[in-house]
Design goal:
The structure holds two protein chains of two kinds. By secondary structure, chain A is mainly alpha-helical. Chain A is built from four helices and no strands. Chain B is an alpha+beta fold. Helix content of chain B is about 35%, strand content about 30%. In chain B, strand 9 and strand 10 form a beta hairpin. The N and C termini of chain B lie far apart (about 100 Å). Classes of the chains: A mainly alpha, B alpha+beta.
C-alpha cells in the first residue's frame, strides 16, 4: 500500500513523516465521524446528502492511500448509498453510515495513546 | 527498496485532498521523483505552464470537476500533454472504460494500490512518452531533410530551384537547353480566402496528385510558392512540343471540387520560359515564365460545368485554323463499321481534331469519325497518336 501503516517505525525521517500524515488523517477521521453521526437520512435536505456523500468519497480515497482497506470499503458503500435513488431509505442508509463510524472507531482505538 | 529509473522525473499529483496529495508526493519522493502538487484542474494547468512535467497522477473525482474534464482541458490547452494516469477510489467499470477512451495511459484504483504498481505504471508511461517524442523528432528530422513537400508530394521550393540552378550553372560543354513551365492556380488567393486554409490545402493536394500522375518520368516538378508550381523539362523537345505539353497540362489539371456548398473551379494558368533563349540566369528565367503565365482555357464562370466547350484563348496557336476546345462524344469507326470505339473530341477545327480514346487501341492510318449530333461521318487521317490521344486531319 502507498501509505500502509508501518508495524514498527524505524525511526527514520521518512517513516516519521508518513506517520505524521497518518496521524493527521486519523484526527480528521475523528472529525468526520462526528459529521456522519449527526447525519440523519430521514430529516436531511438534499444538500446534506451531497455534503455527506462528498465526505464519504474523500474518506474512501484517503483511507485507500493510507492503507485502511476496510474503512475505504465502508466509506465507498456509504457513498454509493447516498448517491442511490432510494437514499432516503433510513434503514439501509443508516446501516451504511454506521458501518463507516464503526470502522472509524476501530481506527481511533488502534491509534489511541497507550498508558 | 527496488531501484527505479524514475529518479529526477517530475510527476504532478492532482488531488483535492491535501492529505492524499502529501502522502502520494511523499511516496514518490522516496523513489527520487520530483513531486509537484495541484489541488484543481486550474492549478494543474498553471503548473504545466511553468514546470516540466513527465507524468500526471490525476484523481478522477476532484472537488468541483472530474478528471475526464481536466484531461479534456489539457488537450485543448497544450499540444504536447504528459501522459495521464487516472487515480480513483472507484473500480466502476464504466468509469474505467470512459477514462481509457479519453486517452489516459493507465487507471489505478487507490484501494490496495502498492508502491511497486504505482512506480511501474509511472515508469511505463514516461518511457512510452519518451519513445513517442523521440519518434516524432525522428520523423521531423527526416522531413526537414527530405526534398519532398509534404502537402504536394512534389519537390520543395528549395529543391526544385536548386535543381534549376544546377542546370543553369552547368559547365558550358555539358549545358543543355531546358524548359520551365510555370503553373499557377487561377485566383489562388481569392479561393483560399473563400474556402479556408484547410480546404485549400486539400485542393492543392488534389491538384498535385493529378500533376504527379501526368508527369513524364523524365521531368521534374516542384511546389514553388503558395499555389504555384515549377515544371522542368530538360529533355530535347521543341518549343512546339513544350506548348503541346502545356496544353495537355491545362486540360488534365482543370477540374471542379465540390466542398459542401462551394464548387471550387481549379484551373491552372501556365507560362513557359526556355533556357537559355529567355534568360541566362535563374531569376530572369523564372520571371519570364511568370510573366508568360496566362490561362490556356477560359477561367470558369460561377456555375459548375460552364468551362466545357468554351473557346480557350491561345496565344501560341500555330495552326492555320484556330482550335475549339470541346468535349464531345464520338465514335471511331474502323473496318467498314465492323468495329466502333468510343472517344471524346477535345479540340476541333475545320481541318482536324484531337480525340481521346475511351479504350486504348492502335488506330489505323485512316478511319471514320462519327461526332455525336453531327449526323455525318468525317473521314480522318491519323497525324499522330500518343497513348490514348490521337491527332487527326479531316480528309473530306
Amino acid at each position: 500500500m502507498i501509505g500502509a501503516p508501518a508495524r514498527v517505525s524505524d525511526g527514520s525521517g521518512a517513516a516519521s513523516k508518513m506517520d505524521e500524515l497518518r496521524l493527521q488523517f486519523v484526527e480528521r477521521c475523528s472529525q468526520d465521524a462526528a459529521e456522519f453521526s449527526a447525519f440523519s437520512p430521514a430529516a436531511a435536505m438534499d444538500e446534506s446528502f451531497e455534503q455527506v456523500r462528498k465526505l464519504a468519497h474523500r474518506l474512501a480515497g484517503a483511507a485507500a492511500v493510507f492503507g485502511y482497506a476496510a474503512l475505504c470499503g465502508a466509506a465507498e458503500r456509504l457513498e454509493d448509498r447516498l448517491a442511490s435513488a432510494d437514499r432516503r431509505s433510513e434503514q439501509d442508509t443508516l446501516a451504511a453510515r454506521d458501518g463507516v463510524t464503526a470502522e472509524i472507531s476501530r481506527l481511533l482505538n488502534a491509534h489511541a495513546p497507550t498508558v | 527498496m527496488q531501484q527505479h529509473s524514475l529518479s529526477g522525473r517530475s510527476v504532478c499529483v492532482v488531488d483535492d485532498d491535501e492529505l492524499v496529495r502529501k502522502a502520494m508526493s511523499f511516496k514518490l519522493r522516496e523513489f527520487g521523483v520530483v513531486a509537484l502538487e495541484a489541488a484543481t484542474g486550474s492549478d494543474l494547468l498553471t503548473t504545466l505552464e511553468r514546470e516540466h512535467v513527465d507524468c500526471i497522477l490525476l484523481d478522477y473525482n476532484l472537488a468541483t470537476e472530474n478528471g475526464l474534464f481536466v484531461q479534456d482541458q489539457l488537450r485543448q490547452r497544450f499540444v504536447e500533454v504528459p501522459p495521464v494516469i487516472m487515480l480513483s477510489a472507484s473500480d466502476n467499470q464504466r468509469t474505467i472504460i470512459k477514462a481509457f477512451r479519453t486517452g489516459v495511459y493507465d487507471y489505478l484504483i487507490k484501494k490496495n494500490l502498492g508502491s511497486e504498481e504505482l512506480m511501474q505504471s509511472l515508469m511505463s508511461a514516461i518511457q512510452r512518452r519518451a519513445a513517442t517524442v523521440s519518434s516524432k523528432a525522428e520523423v521531423e528530422r527526416l522531413r526537414s531533410q527530405s526534398n519532398v513537400d509534404e502537402t504536394t508530394g512534389l519537390f520543395r521550393q528549395d529543391a526544385i530551384r536548386g535543381m534549376l540552378q544546377e542546370l543553369v550553372d552547368a559547365p558550358a560543354q555539358s549545358r543543355k537547353p531546358f524548359f520551365i513551365i510555370m503553373l499557377r492556380l487561377h485566383d489562388a488567393d481569392g479561393a483560399r480566402l473563400k474556402v479556408g486554409q484547410v480546404v485549400w490545402k486539400r485542393v492543392v493536394g488534389m491538384f498535385s496528385a493529378r500533376l504527379r500522375k501526368m508527369m513524364r518520368s523524365s521531368d521534374a516538378c516542384g511546389h514553388d510558392e503558395a499555389g504555384s508550381f515549377i515544371y522542368v523539362v530538360d529533355t530535347a523537345i521543341t518549343p512546339h512540343s513544350a506548348d503541346i505539353l502545356a496544353d495537355r497540362m491545362s486540360d488534365g489539371l482543370s477540374f471542379d471540387v465540390q466542398e459542401e456548398a462551394e464548387t471550387i473551379h481549379v484551373v491552372p494558368e501556365l507560362g513557359i520560359a526556355r533556357f537559355p533563349q529567355d534568360g541566362a540566369d535563374l531569376p530572369t528565367l523564372l520571371k519570364v515564365a511568370l510573366d508568360n503565365v496566362a490561362p490556356r482555357r477560359s477561367p470558369p464562370s460561377q456555375a459548375p460545368g460552364d468551362t466545357v466547350g468554351e473557346v480557350a484563348p491561345n496565344t501560341t496557336e500555330r495552326r492555320q485554323f484556330g482550335r475549339q476546345r470541346v468535349f464531345k462524344g464520338a465514335k471511331v469507326i474502323v473496318n467498314s463499321g465492323h468495329a466502333l470505339y468510343d472517344c471524346t473530341i477535345r479540340d476541333l477545327s475545320p481541318k482536324g481534331a484531337r480525340i481521346r480514346l475511351n479504350t486504348a487501341f492502335t488506330a489505323p492510318d485512316t478511319f471514320d469519325l462519327r461526332i455525336a449530333g453531327s449526323g455525318k461521318d468525317a473521314h480522318c487521317r491519323v497525324v499522330w497518336q500518343r497513348g490514348d490521344e490521337i491527332g487527326v486531319e479531316f480528309s473530306r
